[in-house]
# Entry
Amino acid sequence: MSLGHVSAQKKALDLGRDSVGKLVAKLAIPAVIAQLINLLYNLVDRMYVGAIEGIGMQALAGLGVVFPITLIVSAFANLVGLGGAPLTGIFLGEGKKKEANAVFNTGAAMLLIFGVLLTAVVLVFCDPLVRAFGCPDDAFVYARDYLFVYGIGTIFVMYSLGLNPFITTQGYSFTSMLTVAIGAMLNIALDPLFIFVFGMGVKGAALATILSQAASAVWVTVFFFRKKSLFLGLSPFIMSVTESAIQIVFNNNLKYWSGNNSAYTTALTIMLSAVQIVSMPLNGLGTGVQPLVSYNYGSGNSARIRKTVKIVAVVALCCSTSVWLVSLLAPQIYGYLFSAEPAVMEIIRKNMPFFMAGTVFFFAQMTLQNVFIALNQAKISIFLACLRKVILLIPLCFLLPYAFGAEGVFYSEGIADTVAGIVTATTFFTMLPRILKKREAALAQSTKDNEENTQAE
# Structure
């Protein structure tokens, strides 16, 4: 496979000369729509499972336990896709198509290897993984059934998630959106068929997921068929893996401090769905503008980068504030979405405002951090990826329950998000001018050296 085939086509977007506002809209809107469609799928998928007669709440708890494992699969896809795509964009901005193709081909090979290995791990260690991730006893069978079926389709997930950023980074944002839309809409259509009509329960939900991801993987592969470092991918990889790690910590602590009460695990699953309502669109916004930022970083056009950041930061802040206010003022709305039982609803009503308290700062954590990746700032991105989960949230999740019981697990999320968000925003706006100035100096020196070499010849 090669980038050259599609890069040679006439593109509607000129990342180096078109209006910045126009480019932000044309790149970010499809990416945000794709995430909203994906979010809709996630919510509807859980709503269908929660509505299974007699076992809905236990089955939903099982999905919550399995979710961290699916995040780990996504993390490896992000390691390749979200790590390689910005490098590809920078090389394209520098006019180095051969190097861009090398990054892409390396990424495609790595996705295949990771996919095969992860499939083997999930299928062989299915039961131990479910138990280790803190599954309540009455939800075990549903978590295991879902995970085993999901594991069979891991390779499809890897390719659909991992290759799609390489489409976006070339300016084909609408095509990239269709990758997500095809899978999500097919999944929404297949879920009720498999779950209710065929009576497959949670196995049907998992089967619908892997068949939908297979369709997306075929779409991506067909698009590309018409040995560089992927260090940048460590940041989104760490973000996904630590997200998985904290949910494992959440589940095990809730199981311990609640006395193995699955209502707390179900409530957590619903609360995490609420977090996705704000985080997924903001991630889409950040990854959507990565091609624009990376291309102009490669060409040294700092003014266009500053203008892009200004537009994106304002839009992201408005979005995060809106969801934050809803979560604080009307937390029960999320319980109604998933047909929560009274016990689950009470946990949500009591703890959601604390759990979501820091989401107003997601404009920095989810959006601006993706801009750091686009600027080739791997070390800063890795630190910020570790800060929220590893440095703050995991320790708080273990400590606060000693003072507040099971509720302390929920409090830890809000505190960690607030602190990490403030640090991320401060770091970004402090470092951005220095990063751009350093890049301009490096390009100026390179131009000077080339001119001197030409004269010498």
About this structure: Residues 259 and 406 are 9 Å apart (CA to CA). Confidence is low (pLDDT under 50) at residues 4-12. DSSP finds 19 helices and no strands in the chain. The longest helix spans residues 407-456.
